[in-house]
Write a structure and sequence with these properties.
about 675 residues, 8 strands, six-stranded mixed β-sheet, alpha/beta, single chain, Amino acid/polyamine transporter I, elongated
Length: about 675
């Protein structure tokens, strides 16, 4: 409804736009680190800022990228999941024909399949290199966004705190660290409460920078409005040459936080983001930059502290307080984005298991990840203490920001061709407008590699290695289990074996396999020759969609041995779905088994009633969980790298992140672990 959309639009101001809204704190100082050489440079940089925000933030993101959402979810993984559902490009082939019938799995695609889109789709599906490149690009975009989530709090808070006059740099650093720790401590309350709390502050911030911008414009120089002519961009770059190109690494910071509009989309919705940006954020930041430029034409010597120098003395301290609050909130957008994107990556098997807390009953996309929260907090504290000033952090920040944008542009180009089947001239126009801009900015940022630009790349490498190790090992393990799965005849043989004891109750055996009997089951029987009266092979499968409707979640098949019952149950989750507690899960499972029997799983109503009674008696006897503890080893003929990844790195991640027991909250007194290599 429009009422809910407007509520979300107001909330989004406090969550999404803090980073984008507080960039006036440091853009001009980062663009002119050596001072302003000529007043004409101010007009050139202002023109660059105006058209960068208009082209990238407004046109590209608000009107194009937000459309490429996955049932309301944004971010790099949402783009990847769209491709995975339209083309067979996933590296782990878990998709079953039944999955494509799910209501949220279906894509409303144009019927005009072009030869070009069909050819690109076939190339991607038949090329292992293309699939691998898509996956690497996805985890690189994710890694850069998490890097952004580390750098944003550091630069925003340091910039704001530096407004305290006559304070030593060490004092500024320690105050910033204290503020950062407090920020991460409130994340557990959830986006909903944080958004309601922060939104009024950001509204005051945007109003304040607008009024101060108008004040500076009127008082100092109305002539800066000439910067709306793009001719000043050409003049600036021609006049300044190499120096002007390097300064683009500072200009690009005016669009920091733009990716958060897409990454945080799952916390809100498309109209809410479009309304809040177009009506409040966009005009406010534009006026702020114009006002600062007007001030600098008269006081170019104050460029190192533009924001506070341009603030009138009468409102200096109130603005200092609001700026610090806004800087704290600026961090929120990328922290929320990091939670969202890791939640999505878990669903696609690209990140070790962590606890995902769903913090809102009304908006399922609002999540909190405790482990990630504290990792981000520690990283922010280390970086703030290590760098101490915003100069090097700004250099690093630009690389993280523009890298994510370039990856988004690349994915969106593929989606236009393969999913949307957009006319080729529109795709070409999109590419020639946005890719050159982002490549130029990326080159300017990378030029400062030694001055801090290496940092997001180093962070990205660490995260890419972690995600690649996990995904590769998971994929190899899945292929091994597929290859060595046990024939269904084994179940029939068990029913004829008098040495196998029948135990009352329901036994749930968890397996990665979505089809077949896992190898660990006969291993269990060989050690404990007994089987429950109702045995259910449970496969929890994450799909590349944001959610699975409750009534579509369970997929059940049955085998019919004589004196015990065997079911194969695939439980399908989207990356936004919360995994239910064991007691609720057991009730849902039994109800779905009964529904399966009523709907044709049995030959007659009398048989169905008898079978339902059998299952209910088994449930009354107790529900027990069997989990395989597989010790994964690389084959003897494996390379040194593969042996390190599978034998050392993967077990290390499994040991230090959450296991299936912790993830599913299985009670210990009803759990049996089965170990094998």
């Amino acid at each position: 409804s429009w009422r809910r959309t407007l509520v979300l639009a107001i909330q989004s101001i406090g969550v999404v736009y803090g980073d984008l809204g507080t960039s006036p704190l440091y853009v001009y100082s980062s663009t002119f680190p050596d001072g302003i050489h000529h007043t004409k440079d101010i007009l050139g940089v202002l023109s660059l800022i105006i058209y960068t925000i208009v082209l990238i933030s407004l046109i590209k993101y608000v009107f194009i990228v937000l459309r490429a959402n996955d049932n309301g979810e944004g971010g790099t993984f949402a783009l990847y999941s769209l491709l995975c559902r339209n083309a067979n490009v996933s590296l782990i082939p878990k998709t079953q024909p039944e999955d494509r019938k799910l209501s949220n799995y279906k894509l409303e695609l144009p019927s005009n399949e072009t030869r070009l889109s069909q050819k690109i789709k076939e190339k991607m599906e038949n090329s292992k290199v293309a699939k691998t490149c898509l996956f690497i690009a996805t985890i690189m975009g994710t890694s850069m966004l998490i890097g952004d989530g580390i750098l944003t709090p550091c630069i925003s808070v340091l910039s704001a705190v530096s407004g305290i006059k006559n304070l030593s740099q060490d004092s500024i650093v320690w105050i910033s660290i204290a503020i950062l720790i407090a920020l991460f401590m409130v994340q557990r309350f959830g986006t909903d409460k944080v958004g309601y709390t922060f939104s009024p502050v950001l509204c005051i911030w945007f109003l304040s920078i607008t009024l101060i911008g108008v004040y500076n414009l009127v008082k100092h120089d109305l002539g800066v409005l000439r910067a709306f002519s793009p001719a000043y961009i050409v003049d600036y770059l021609k006049r300044t040459g190499h120096r002007g190109w390097i300064s683009l690494g500072g200009v690009v910071l005016c669009i920091t936080g733009t990716e958060a509009m897409f990454a945080d989309l799952g916390h809100f919705n498309v109209p809410a983001i479009q309304i809040s940006f177009s009506t409040i954020v966009f005009p406010s930041v534009l006026v702020a930059y114009i006002g600062q430029a007007a001030y600098l034409t008269k006081h170019p010597e104050n460029v190192a502290n533009t924001f506070y120098a341009a603030t009138p003395d009468t409102v200096y301290w109130p603005m200092f307080v609001v700026a610090n609050l806004a800087a704290v909130i600026a961090s929120q957008s990328l922290i929320s984005g990091a939670f969202s994107i890791i939640s999505q990556s878990l669903g696609l098997g690209c990140f070790p298991r962590v606890k995902v807390v769903h913090t809102s009953a009304d908006y399922q996309g609002q999540v909190y990840i405790p482990e990630l929260n504290y990792i981000l907090m520690v990283a922010c504290v280390i970086l703030t203490y290590g760098f101490k000033t915003t100069t090097q952090i700004g250099n690093a920040f630009g690389v993280a920001v523009i890298s994510v944008m370039f990856i988004t542009t690349s994915f969106l180009t593929l989606i236009m061709l393969v999913v949307w089947k957009t006319k080729i001239w529109k795709v070409i126009l999109f590419v020639i407008v946005f890719m050159p801009i982002e490549l130029i900015y990326l080159g300017a940022c990378l030029y400062k590699f030694k001055e801090g630009a290496y940092l997001p790349l180093a962070l990205a490498v660490v995260l890419i290695v972690l995600m690649a190790v996990w995904h590769y090992s998971l994929k190899q393990r899945y292929y091994y289990e597929m290859k060595h799965r046990v024939p269904y005849d084994y179940i029939s043989e068990l029913s004829r074996n008098p040495e196998i004891r029948r135990i009352p109750g329901i036994g749930l055996l968890y397996s990665e396999l979505v089809d077949g009997v896992p190898q660990i089951f006969p291993h269990f029987i060989s050690n404990i020759p007994a089987i429950h009266s109702v045995a259910v092979f449970v496969s929890i499968k994450s799909l590349p969609i944001n959610r699975v409707e409750e009534e579509e979640r369970f997929l059940i098949r049955q085998m019919e041995p004589r004196d015990f019952r065997v079911f194969f149950c695939t439980i399908r989750y989207g990356y936004r779905d919360a995994i239910v507690e064991p007691s609720e899960f057991e009730s849902l499972l039994v109800e779905n088994l009964k529904e399966f029997m009523r709907a044709g799983g049995c030959s007659s109503p009398e048989t169905a009633a008898e079978e339902i009674g059998f299952v209910e008696r088994a449930r009354d006897a107790g529900v027990f969980y069997l989990i395989g503890e597989a010790d994964v080893k690389a084959g003897r003929d494996s390379s040194l790298l593969k042996r390190f990844v599978v034998n050392k790195a993967y077990p290390f991640l499994r040991k230090n992140f959450r296991g299936v027991k912790q993830l599913l909250a299985i009670p210990s007194n009803r759990l049996v672990r089965v170990g094998m290599t």
